[in-house]
Amino acid sequence: xxxxxxxxxxxxxxxxxxxxxxxxxxxxxxxxxxxxxxxxxxxxxxxxxxxxxxxxxxxxxxxxxxxxxxxxxxxxxxxxxxxxxxxxxxxxxxxxxxxxxxxxxxxxxxxxxxxxxxxxxxxxxxxxxxxxxxxxxxxxxxxxxxxxxxxxxxxxxxxxxxxxxxxxxxxxxxxxxxxxxxxxxxxxxxxxxxxxxxxxxxxxxxxxxxxxxxxxxxxxxxxxxxxxxxxxxxxxxxxxxxxxxxxxxxxxxxxxxxxxxxxxxxxxxxxxxxxxxxxxxxxxxxxxxxxxxxxxxxxxxxxxxxxxxxxxxxxxxxxxxxxxxxxxxxxxxxxxxxxxxxxxxxxxxxxxxxxxxxxxxxxxxxxxxxxxxxxxxxxxxxxxxxxxxxxxxxxxxxxxxxxxxxxxxxxxxxxxxxxxxxxxxxxxxxxxxxxxxxxxxxxxxxxxxxxxxxxxxxxxxxxxxxxxxxxxxxxxxxxxxxxxxxxxxxxxxxxxxxxxxxxxxxxxxxxxxxxxxxxxxxxxxxxxxxxxxxxxxxxxxxxxxxxxxxxxxxxxxxxxxxxxxxxxxxxxxxxxxxxxxxxxxxxxxxxxxxxxxxxxxxxxxxxxxxxxxxxxxxxxxxxxxxxxxxxxxxxxxxxxxxxxxxxxxxxxxxxxxxxxxxxxxxxxxxxxxxxxxxxxxxxxxxxxxxxxxxxxxxxxxxxxxxxxxxxxxxxxxxxxxxxxxxxxxxxxxxxxxxxxxxxxxxxxxxxxxxxxxxxxxxxxxxxxxxxxxxxxxxxxxxxxxxxxxxxxxxxxxxxxxxxxxxxxxxx
Length: 811
Hints:
44% of the residues lie in helices and 20% in strands.
């Protein structure tokens, strides 16, 4: 069935015509344990400002019956139910069935392989509520939602408003939830299943963790950390936003076969991949904190105040990404999160912003399908960095005061970015028009360099194709103190044109542009300064100064100004002295990426040996042992590394799986070894770990079997596709992998099946990185024109990155 994508003009017309008063949604899940069906009756009460006018409701599920004011309606077309001759006050009642709960949008049934238990989750961003029940599926038609859910008797049901009335109906139970506050359809949710539930009172809130029964022990292990972070987050946001979260109950539901996390009001849905089966590393703990605080920030920015249309999607996501780092650095033990942001997300944003998918942070969005294509590195980490720059530009105290005024003025409504700019201008006393034109309406990344002349120092800034944006940034002057560098001066300047004088002391050993990482801009030092930076990065005194240097080196690698060998040697030198847990794992990943993906084939073994030595040295520190051994399992240089790893894996099942995959790359890792570890591993997704071992083997039959499960059967959970694909696409296996490039291209038209998250995951993670050439990249670029927008943008971005890798490999 063809499903139309809602156009902005249609949404504006419908919003001008209608005011939605209330949704009453009855959801029947009793058919799910034995079958695929979710049945719903949606009753929508709404008024019309032009009686007699016509509009439509959205419903992409199978419609059993539909009536408007008691009069039967014709069947829907292309996912739309025509509503003719509207009265001033209207009641729409639609009974619908969704039976594609395995690979369809909006609702998903997952069967736990550990015990056969069934769990169901719903996720509606950007416009997937219509795949489950009838609604007006656009963000600016907010209304209270009253959910009544009938489910099997041993299930727990979680929804937005909490504290339901529960009645027993034979073998089933009915859960009647209180009305939600006014919410957009995409922020509503029903999650259900035989959950293990943990509850705690903290900070005036009733906090819940719900998880499938087979992961109860993992959830109990992590509960204290999750509850502590939740309490800290509420304390921080309620203070800086000047508005308490207005509901006592706040649930966090961890479900199988979900991608990422979703900020449903009062009931956040998580991928339970984020509940690590073995003890989490420091970076994994920090990632959980960032996810948790990101989704919590959305309670205010996205739920309580909602964007009017998807052209301000960036603001929802960028603000939550900025706010989670802000909160973590000020209210939790994760004080180095901005260094972690620079080492991972911000680097991906710099790369995306210099490629073919670069777009203004805020841009016109003509329909919702187009909106799904901009959940990207420009919207998230670049947007967060831009808001970090805005906070520096107006001052953090004034920024917080503006946010308090914003929520007080617009609570439970919808806004545009101009509404936020207005309150921040009032709070700061600054005219922000030039700032928003430069930062939000222009694509690309500014480039800033430092020039030294007889008259002194000058920052030279160039915007993408024109003058630079307004920047507040710092330049640090450093001198050697033995083997270390110490900062002797820090000058903060406001860049408002191409050339800005900087009052720096002469004679420093190193000048670091964008010290403290206050702005979003690349710095490309000249040959002499680049050489100094490569040799001195490890001598810098703080995680953030080393991070700025490392980011500069990485940016020059992807632009072809630095070799993979130079990058690996620089990053491993930084790793030898690094003190921050936030960046150890990202730097290990960068070094391994440079050695595997960016290095000429003739240098791979040498660089792998360099990284192997760095990992072995790191493993001598008990605090770094786990992450070092994991990194070595990825980059092992031969049987000696494998044997060394196996001796140290001990009883750590996670490490044992990694060692088996490592052995498999060299022709080992027998089926008997895999079977024995499967018996010992309590993880319900242990079968995926076994599949990664098969994926790593340089064996044509194994590659074929893994490809079948990944792409045809789609049996691998979306969150695990990246792990299996990483072992599938291995350097040195080019001859085996070459036939899969055209097969990948043939699958592109179907990658959008199942919604936005699977589309991005499959397009990105399965993209061939070995066994391809420039001609293949041209082929997929041509094919992109016929793909869904979310597939097209992901494809073009990945083709650009792989093209850069190929040029770097060529030397």
